[in-house]
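Box S2. Input/output pair 1.
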Amino acid sequence: MGPRFKLFLPLFLFALLAIVLFRGLFLDPSEMPSALIDRPLPSFSLPALGGDRQLSREDVTGEVALLNVWATWCVSCRVEHPYLKQLADKGIPIYGLNYKDSDSAAQRWLDELGDPYRLNIADREGTLGVDLGVYGAPETYLLDANGVVRYRHVGVVDAQVWETVLEPLYRELKTGQVAP
């Protein structure tokens, strides 16, 4: 390589980086695939929110359910929360994964807004979140009765998402029409 090429190398690298970053502006994070689809929920041992009990994978399996990643610092989680409460009131099993949050703030949130979760996993350091491939909160995973991740939704679960995407998959899993 000649000395003139070396002069243009930083410009070339900058242009390449700019193209990659520009393309990233148009990616939809809700369409990013999860490596866990059709794979078991990772094993874990984490405390229950606000308690001394240790929770594991077995505590959130045994029925078709949602696993919702949430945090008090997440503005979208506050938007999503009332709808999750409605789903829980209709009998939809929802487990919470309180992600990188403090127990006291999370407990105040639930006391104030209501608690749609059957159990809440306190993932203070984000270790289970890393194993799940969480990009941020909120994220919701649909688990079959064996604890296999069947679907991942990034963003707010609202009536439209529930009725058009999650509920049909939930009903299929409940009736056993989805292959294991």
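Box S3. Input/output pair 2.
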Amino acid sequence: MTPLERGFLLLTSRMGDPGRQVLTPAQLRTLASRMGQEQPQDGDRELTQEDLCRLGYRRDAAKRIVALMEEEDRLDAYLKRGRKLDCFPITRANPLYPPLLRRRLGLDSPGCLWAKGDLTLLHTPAISLVGSRELAEPNRNFAREAGRHAAERGWTLVSGNARGADRTAQEACLEAGGRVISIVADELYKQPLRQNVLCLSLEDYDEPFSSQRALSRNYAIHTLGAMVLVAQAGLERGGTWDGTVKNLRQGWSPVACFRDGSESARNLERRGAFLVSLEELRDLRLPVLEEPALFGAVSE
């Protein structure tokens, strides 16, 4: 692991301590931006409070950042525990980091992902699926067929491992011999190792479930696939709705909603999504995407 990767972890990982005051994504973005504009005169020495103050930080904020960076032994112990649990960090400086996260989110992408499973899936063509936990039967059929279709096309299915649409699509994909990337909202280390499955966490490998985690992972699901399928969404409520509307507003990826006759599907269509029937689902093709640069978003 490079010093830059260790730096990402030291600044963003709680390392099993909920009280550790790590940097937020916005604070990490600010630090990366300032460091990109000015580097210490001697690039081999460690960053000091004086360096950070010259970059515009107040002394108390500079002291906090330096204190986080000094916990090397603690990081080594945390990484060792993670390896024993088959959990590995993928920082934004790692070539394995998902290309579409860099492309679509740039410095707003997570500083580090924790992974358990088949890491090769991160660089395979992928399609995402989102949907409600409580599904009408036609919508359940759509989720199931979406999973099968992904497997038949050789696409990795990205979803959130929640009951309802997520698990329906994931299991259908795996049963058809496909591959799944699952963005979890609970402890990563508790996920079983399964063939053709990669579990990812946007937080540490031992971070427990929270409703905020369940909501915040939506942007990763929407940005990891070349296209997003919406099996079912509540009208102006719920995580599926919020994540899809944000995707459409930001223009991260094309959105295809199941043509179920609902007002929510029609509303999303007016916002820029397109509707597909079960029959039209089988004719979908993934858009061709450019390979992004290592440290930032690539322009179209």
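Caption for Box S3: Residues 290-300 have pLDDT under 50 and may be disordered. DSSP finds 13 helices and nine strands in the chain.
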